[in-house]
Design goal:
The chain has one domain: Rossmann fold, CATH 3.40.50.850. 38% of the residues lie in helices and 20% in strands. The protein is globular and about 50 Å long. The strands form 2 sheets. It has a 6-stranded parallel beta sheet. The chain has 7 helices and 8 strands. Strand 6 and strand 7 form a beta hairpin. It has 210 residues and is α/β, with parallel strands linked by helices.
C-alpha cells in the first residue's frame, strides 16, 4: 500500500463553539482542543500541508458573524497559524463548496484529508462524505472533533450519542476514524489508517443486534 499524501484540515475551530448554544459537548472541548493542537504540531513536524477554515454567515448573522468575537479562531489555533497554511472561509457545511480547497489539494498532490474540528454532526460529516466524490480518502480524528446535543421536531439525541453514532457511520464507509495518537503514529510510519466497509459493518451490526 502506498504512503498516504495527507493534508490536515482544521474545520471551524472558532470561539463560537466554546460557549453559548453551540458549545461543543462531546467530547468536551476541554478534551478535544488539546487533541486538535497535537494534530497541528504533528502535521507541522511531519511537513504535511495544513488548511484552516472559518465559517462565515454574514455581518448581520447572530452567529459566525465576521464582525464578532465568536468568528475568531481559538487562540490555541491562531497562535500556531503560519503563512504556510491555506486559510479559507466557507458558507456551507462542506469545506469544498464555494472554496478553492480542491485546487489547493491537487497542487500539493494530496490524496488523503485528515479532518479535525467542529462540528461532528455538521461540517465534519458533510466534508468527509463529499471527499470520495473528488477521489480523496478521508480521515476523521474521533477525539479531535466534537458534537452538540440535538433536538428538533424529528427527535432528540444527546451529544455523546450523536458523536459516537457518527463515528461508527463514518468508519463504515466515508472515512477512516482513529484517535489523534493512532493517527500521529500512522503519520510517522507513513501508513494508512484502517477503515471498515459497509458490508462488514452491516454484518457485525446484525450479529450484535441478534
Amino acid at each position: 500500500m502506498s504512503t498516504p499524501r495527507r493534508a490536515l484540515i482544521l474545520v471551524d475551530v472558532q470561539q463560537e463553539y466554546f460557549e453559548g448554544p453551540l458549545e461543543i459537548q462531546y467530547p468536551p472541548h476541554a478534551d478535544s482542543l488539546p487533541k486538535i493542537v497535537a494534530a497541528i504540531d504533528a502535521a507541522t513536524s511531519a511537513g504535511i500541508p495544513v488548511a484552516v477554515f472559518q465559517h462565515a454567515s454574514g455581518d448581520d448573522a447572530p452567529v459566525f458573524n465576521p464582525t464578532m468575537q465568536g468568528f475568531q479562531l481559538h487562540p490555541e489555533v491562531a497562535q500556531r497559524q503560519s503563512l504556510d497554511w491555506k486559510a479559507m472561509t466557507k458558507q456551507f457545511g462542506t469545506v469544498f463548496a464555494g472554496t478553492d480547497l480542491l485546487e489547493w489539494l491537487r497542487e500539493h498532490d494530496v490524496d488523503t484529508i485528515t479532518l479535525v474540528g467542529y462540528m461532528t454532526n455538521n461540517c465534519i460529516l458533510a466534508s468527509a462524505a463529499e471527499a470520495e466524490t473528488h477521489g480523496l480518502a478521508a480521515e476523521v480524528l474521533s477525539d479531535a472533533t466534537g458534537a452538540i446535543n440535538i433536538a428538533n421536531d424529528a427527535g432528540f439525541a444527546d451529544a455523546k450519542t450523536v458523536h459516537t453514532t457518527l463515528m461508527a457511520l463514518l468508519n463504515s464507509n466515508f472515512a477512516a476514524v482513529a484517535t489523534t495518537d493512532d493517527w500521529t503514529h500512522a503519520l510517522g510510519e507513513g501508513t494508512a489508517l484502517p477503515k471498515d466497509n459497509l458490508p462488514g459493518s452491516a454484518l457485525r451490526g446484525a450479529q450484535m443486534a441478534g
